[in-house]
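Review form for a predicted model. The reviewer records the input and the model, then writes brief findings.
Reviewer: anonymous (R2)
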Amino acid sequence: MNKIVVYILIISLYGSCSFFKRTKVKNGQEPIARVYDKYLYKSDIKGVGVGAAKPEDSIMAVKSYIDSWIRHALLLHYSEENLTQDNDQIDQQLQDYKESLEIYLYEKNLVAQKLDTAVNDKQISDYYDSNKDIFNLKDPIFQVKYLLLKKNFFVKGLTVPIDSVRKWMKINSAYNSMKLASFAKYNAVNSTVDDSSWFTSDQLQKLVGTSPLELVNAPYNNAYQEMTDNNYLYLIKFNNYKLKGNDAPLSYVKNEIKNIILNKRKLDFINSIQNDIYKDALKSQKIETY
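Model under review:
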Protein backbone atom coordinates (compact mmCIF):
# COMPACT_ATOMS: atom_id res chain seq x y z
CA MET A 1 0.00 0.00 0.00
CA ASN A 2 1.56 3.30 -1.05
CA LYS A 3 1.91 6.46 1.08
CA ILE A 4 -0.74 8.35 -0.90
CA VAL A 5 -3.35 5.71 0.00
CA VAL A 6 -2.34 5.90 3.67
CA TYR A 7 -2.56 9.72 3.63
CA ILE A 8 -6.00 9.65 2.00
CA LEU A 9 -7.13 7.10 4.55
CA ILE A 10 -5.92 9.21 7.47
CA ILE A 11 -7.66 12.33 6.16
CA SER A 12 -10.87 10.40 5.61
CA LEU A 13 -10.75 8.99 9.14
CA TYR A 14 -10.10 12.24 10.98
CA GLY A 15 -11.65 14.90 8.77
CA SER A 16 -8.85 17.46 8.44
CA CYS A 17 -5.24 18.22 9.22
CA SER A 18 -6.34 20.35 12.18
CA PHE A 19 -6.43 17.13 14.18
CA PHE A 20 -2.66 16.73 13.92
CA LYS A 21 -1.94 20.21 15.32
CA ARG A 22 -3.10 18.97 18.71
CA THR A 23 -1.04 15.82 18.66
CA LYS A 24 2.38 14.60 19.64
CA VAL A 25 5.09 14.31 16.97
CA LYS A 26 7.42 11.32 17.37
CA ASN A 27 10.63 10.97 15.33
CA GLY A 28 9.21 13.43 12.82
CA GLN A 29 5.97 11.47 12.48
CA GLU A 30 2.47 12.85 12.96
CA PRO A 31 0.16 10.54 14.90
CA ILE A 32 -2.78 8.96 13.08
CA ALA A 33 -4.82 8.18 16.19
CA ARG A 34 -4.94 9.06 19.88
CA VAL A 35 -6.61 7.52 22.92
CA TYR A 36 -6.05 9.70 26.01
CA ASP A 37 -2.23 9.92 26.27
CA LYS A 38 -1.47 7.03 23.89
CA TYR A 39 -0.69 7.63 20.20
CA LEU A 40 -0.62 5.47 17.08
CA TYR A 41 1.87 6.41 14.34
CA LYS A 42 2.33 5.54 10.68
CA SER A 43 5.29 3.32 11.55
CA ASP A 44 2.99 1.27 13.79
CA ILE A 45 0.82 0.23 10.83
CA LYS A 46 3.69 -0.54 8.48
CA GLY A 47 2.80 -3.63 6.46
CA VAL A 48 -0.91 -3.58 7.29
CA GLY A 49 -2.91 -4.06 4.09
CA VAL A 50 0.14 -4.98 2.02
CA GLY A 51 -0.68 -7.67 -0.51
CA ALA A 52 -4.39 -6.89 -0.69
CA ALA A 53 -5.96 -7.51 -4.09
CA LYS A 54 -7.44 -4.01 -4.39
CA PRO A 55 -6.59 -0.56 -2.96
CA GLU A 56 -9.95 -0.44 -1.21
CA ASP A 57 -9.10 -3.72 0.54
CA SER A 58 -5.87 -2.13 1.81
CA ILE A 59 -7.84 0.85 3.11
CA MET A 60 -10.30 -1.43 4.89
CA ALA A 61 -7.43 -3.41 6.48
CA VAL A 62 -5.80 -0.23 7.80
CA LYS A 63 -9.09 1.16 9.04
CA SER A 64 -9.87 -2.11 10.82
CA TYR A 65 -6.43 -2.14 12.46
CA ILE A 66 -6.79 1.44 13.69
CA ASP A 67 -10.27 0.75 15.04
CA SER A 68 -9.00 -2.33 16.85
CA TRP A 69 -6.08 -0.36 18.32
CA ILE A 70 -8.46 2.36 19.57
CA ARG A 71 -10.79 -0.15 21.23
CA HIS A 72 -7.87 -1.96 22.87
CA ALA A 73 -6.36 1.31 24.13
CA LEU A 74 -9.71 2.43 25.54
CA LEU A 75 -10.23 -0.83 27.43
CA LEU A 76 -6.66 -0.68 28.72
CA HIS A 77 -7.17 2.89 29.94
CA TYR A 78 -10.36 2.06 31.82
CA SER A 79 -8.76 -1.10 33.25
CA GLU A 80 -5.81 0.89 34.55
CA GLU A 81 -8.10 3.56 35.98
CA ASN A 82 -10.27 1.06 37.83
CA LEU A 83 -7.55 -1.28 39.04
CA THR A 84 -5.33 1.34 40.68
CA GLN A 85 -5.66 -0.28 44.07
CA ASP A 86 -4.38 -3.60 42.64
CA ASN A 87 -1.31 -2.24 40.85
CA ASP A 88 1.07 -3.85 43.33
CA GLN A 89 -0.59 -7.20 42.78
CA ILE A 90 -0.43 -6.81 38.98
CA ASP A 91 3.23 -5.81 39.14
CA GLN A 92 3.99 -8.87 41.25
CA GLN A 93 2.12 -11.17 38.87
CA LEU A 94 4.00 -9.70 35.91
CA GLN A 95 7.29 -10.19 37.71
CA ASP A 96 6.37 -13.79 38.61
CA TYR A 97 5.44 -14.46 34.99
CA LYS A 98 8.69 -12.91 33.71
CA GLU A 99 10.78 -15.01 36.09
CA SER A 100 8.87 -18.20 35.24
CA LEU A 101 9.27 -17.52 31.53
CA GLU A 102 13.02 -16.95 31.89
CA ILE A 103 13.42 -20.23 33.81
CA TYR A 104 11.27 -22.08 31.25
CA LEU A 105 13.32 -20.77 28.31
CA TYR A 106 16.60 -21.64 30.05
CA GLU A 107 15.44 -25.19 30.78
CA LYS A 108 14.00 -25.55 27.27
CA ASN A 109 17.35 -24.59 25.72
CA LEU A 110 19.22 -27.04 27.95
CA VAL A 111 16.81 -29.85 27.03
CA ALA A 112 17.19 -29.08 23.32
CA GLN A 113 20.99 -29.07 23.57
CA LYS A 114 21.72 -31.94 25.94
CA LEU A 115 18.78 -34.31 26.40
CA ASP A 116 19.21 -37.74 24.85
CA THR A 117 16.09 -38.27 22.72
CA ALA A 118 16.94 -41.71 21.37
CA VAL A 119 14.52 -44.42 22.52
CA ASN A 120 15.17 -47.94 21.25
CA ASP A 121 12.73 -50.81 20.84
CA LYS A 122 14.01 -52.67 23.91
CA GLN A 123 13.37 -49.66 26.15
CA ILE A 124 9.85 -49.42 24.73
CA SER A 125 9.10 -53.13 25.14
CA ASP A 126 10.55 -53.18 28.68
CA TYR A 127 8.33 -50.27 29.70
CA TYR A 128 5.33 -51.96 28.06
CA ASP A 129 5.96 -55.27 29.88
CA SER A 130 6.29 -53.48 33.23
CA ASN A 131 3.19 -51.30 32.79
CA LYS A 132 0.66 -53.32 30.82
CA ASP A 133 -2.07 -52.48 33.29
CA ILE A 134 -2.08 -48.80 32.23
CA PHE A 135 -2.59 -49.65 28.57
CA ASN A 136 -6.09 -51.10 28.70
CA LEU A 137 -8.15 -50.31 25.62
CA LYS A 138 -10.96 -47.81 26.08
CA ASP A 139 -12.45 -48.76 22.68
CA PRO A 140 -12.19 -51.81 20.44
CA ILE A 141 -9.49 -51.62 17.80
CA PHE A 142 -8.99 -53.42 14.50
CA GLN A 143 -5.89 -54.42 12.58
CA VAL A 144 -6.38 -53.85 8.87
CA LYS A 145 -4.68 -53.50 5.53
CA TYR A 146 -6.19 -50.78 3.39
CA LEU A 147 -5.89 -49.54 -0.20
CA LEU A 148 -7.58 -46.54 -1.80
CA LEU A 149 -7.42 -46.57 -5.61
CA LYS A 150 -8.98 -44.45 -8.32
CA LYS A 151 -12.15 -46.16 -9.49
CA ASN A 152 -11.02 -46.55 -13.10
CA PHE A 153 -7.53 -47.79 -12.17
CA PHE A 154 -7.98 -51.34 -13.49
CA VAL A 155 -9.47 -50.32 -16.85
CA LYS A 156 -6.35 -48.52 -18.03
CA GLY A 157 -4.67 -51.63 -19.46
CA LEU A 158 -2.04 -51.81 -16.70
CA THR A 159 -0.05 -54.98 -16.18
CA VAL A 160 -1.22 -55.49 -12.57
CA PRO A 161 -4.59 -57.31 -12.53
CA ILE A 162 -7.10 -56.78 -9.76
CA ASP A 163 -6.96 -60.47 -8.82
CA SER A 164 -3.26 -60.16 -8.01
CA VAL A 165 -3.91 -57.21 -5.71
CA ARG A 166 -6.73 -59.11 -4.03
CA LYS A 167 -4.41 -62.07 -3.43
CA TRP A 168 -1.73 -59.82 -1.93
CA MET A 169 -4.34 -58.30 0.35
CA LYS A 170 -6.03 -61.53 1.45
CA ILE A 171 -3.11 -63.89 2.01
CA ASN A 172 -0.51 -62.89 4.58
CA SER A 173 3.02 -63.83 3.55
CA ALA A 174 6.36 -62.09 3.25
CA TYR A 175 6.18 -62.23 -0.55
CA ASN A 176 2.62 -60.85 -0.74
CA SER A 177 3.46 -58.10 1.74
CA MET A 178 6.44 -57.04 -0.36
CA LYS A 179 4.40 -56.99 -3.59
CA LEU A 180 1.53 -55.13 -1.94
CA ALA A 181 3.84 -52.50 -0.43
CA SER A 182 5.50 -51.88 -3.80
CA PHE A 183 2.12 -51.65 -5.57
CA ALA A 184 0.71 -49.25 -2.96
CA LYS A 185 3.77 -46.99 -3.07
CA TYR A 186 3.40 -46.26 -6.78
CA ASN A 187 -0.33 -46.66 -7.41
CA ALA A 188 -2.49 -46.05 -4.32
CA VAL A 189 -4.09 -42.70 -3.49
CA ASN A 190 -3.82 -43.71 0.17
CA SER A 191 -2.82 -46.92 1.88
CA THR A 192 -1.90 -48.78 5.04
CA VAL A 193 -0.40 -52.13 4.11
CA ASP A 194 1.91 -53.11 6.97
CA ASP A 195 0.86 -55.84 9.37
CA SER A 196 0.91 -53.77 12.55
CA SER A 197 -1.54 -50.89 11.93
CA TRP A 198 -4.46 -50.67 14.35
CA PHE A 199 -7.50 -48.40 14.11
CA THR A 200 -10.62 -47.58 16.11
CA SER A 201 -13.96 -47.83 14.32
CA ASP A 202 -14.10 -44.03 14.03
CA GLN A 203 -10.65 -43.94 12.44
CA LEU A 204 -11.67 -46.62 9.96
CA GLN A 205 -14.78 -44.68 9.03
CA LYS A 206 -12.63 -41.62 8.30
CA LEU A 207 -10.30 -43.72 6.14
CA VAL A 208 -13.09 -44.64 3.77
CA GLY A 209 -14.69 -41.20 3.75
CA THR A 210 -18.35 -41.35 2.77
CA SER A 211 -18.24 -45.02 1.70
CA PRO A 212 -20.23 -47.53 3.75
CA LEU A 213 -18.19 -49.60 6.17
CA GLU A 214 -19.82 -52.50 7.98
CA LEU A 215 -18.02 -53.17 11.24
CA VAL A 216 -20.63 -55.43 12.80
CA ASN A 217 -19.12 -58.77 11.75
CA ALA A 218 -16.21 -58.07 9.39
CA PRO A 219 -13.52 -57.44 12.01
CA TYR A 220 -14.30 -60.70 13.82
CA ASN A 221 -14.00 -63.10 10.87
CA ASN A 222 -10.93 -61.72 9.07
CA ALA A 223 -13.19 -60.47 6.29
CA TYR A 224 -12.03 -58.91 3.05
CA GLN A 225 -14.19 -56.09 1.70
CA GLU A 226 -14.34 -54.01 -1.46
CA MET A 227 -16.38 -50.82 -1.61
CA THR A 228 -16.78 -48.05 -4.15
CA ASP A 229 -18.12 -44.53 -4.37
CA ASN A 230 -18.20 -42.10 -7.30
CA ASN A 231 -14.43 -41.74 -7.44
CA TYR A 232 -12.64 -44.47 -5.54
CA LEU A 233 -12.29 -48.21 -4.97
CA TYR A 234 -11.64 -49.28 -1.38
CA LEU A 235 -9.92 -52.58 -0.56
CA ILE A 236 -9.87 -53.55 3.13
CA LYS A 237 -8.61 -56.72 4.81
CA PHE A 238 -9.37 -57.24 8.52
CA ASN A 239 -6.56 -59.22 10.15
CA ASN A 240 -7.19 -58.97 13.89
CA TYR A 241 -9.15 -57.20 16.62
CA LYS A 242 -8.95 -56.36 20.31
CA LEU A 243 -12.00 -55.69 22.44
CA LYS A 244 -12.48 -52.86 24.90
CA GLY A 245 -10.74 -53.60 28.21
CA ASN A 246 -8.05 -55.83 26.69
CA ASP A 247 -4.37 -54.98 26.83
CA ALA A 248 -3.45 -52.69 23.95
CA PRO A 249 -0.99 -54.25 21.45
CA LEU A 250 2.54 -52.93 21.75
CA SER A 251 2.50 -51.61 18.17
CA TYR A 252 -0.64 -49.60 18.96
CA VAL A 253 0.88 -47.79 21.95
CA LYS A 254 4.51 -47.66 20.80
CA ASN A 255 4.53 -43.91 20.10
CA GLU A 256 2.68 -43.22 23.35
CA ILE A 257 5.27 -45.16 25.32
CA LYS A 258 8.10 -43.36 23.56
CA ASN A 259 6.59 -40.01 24.58
CA ILE A 260 6.16 -41.21 28.17
CA ILE A 261 9.82 -42.27 28.33
CA LEU A 262 11.00 -38.98 26.84
CA ASN A 263 8.82 -36.90 29.19
CA LYS A 264 10.11 -38.81 32.22
CA ARG A 265 13.67 -38.43 30.97
CA LYS A 266 13.08 -34.71 30.48
CA LEU A 267 11.71 -34.26 34.02
CA ASP A 268 14.62 -36.25 35.49
CA PHE A 269 17.09 -34.15 33.50
CA ILE A 270 15.55 -30.85 34.65
CA ASN A 271 15.48 -32.02 38.27
CA SER A 272 19.11 -33.02 37.97
CA ILE A 273 20.06 -29.59 36.58
CA GLN A 274 18.13 -27.84 39.37
CA ASN A 275 19.84 -29.97 42.03
CA ASP A 276 23.28 -29.37 40.52
CA ILE A 277 22.69 -25.60 40.48
CA TYR A 278 21.58 -25.73 44.11
CA LYS A 279 24.59 -27.81 45.20
CA ASP A 280 27.03 -25.54 43.35
CA ALA A 281 25.48 -22.47 44.98
CA LEU A 282 25.81 -24.05 48.43
CA LYS A 283 29.40 -25.05 47.81
CA SER A 284 30.38 -21.58 46.63
CA GLN A 285 28.45 -19.97 49.48
CA LYS A 286 26.04 -18.14 47.17
CA ILE A 287 23.15 -19.17 49.45
CA GLU A 288 22.52 -18.01 52.97
CA THR A 289 19.52 -18.20 55.26
CA TYR A 290 19.03 -15.83 58.19
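Findings: Strands lie at 31-35, 38-41, 141-150, 190-192, 198-200, 224-228, 232-242.
Further findings: The mean pLDDT is 83.
Recommendation: see findings above.
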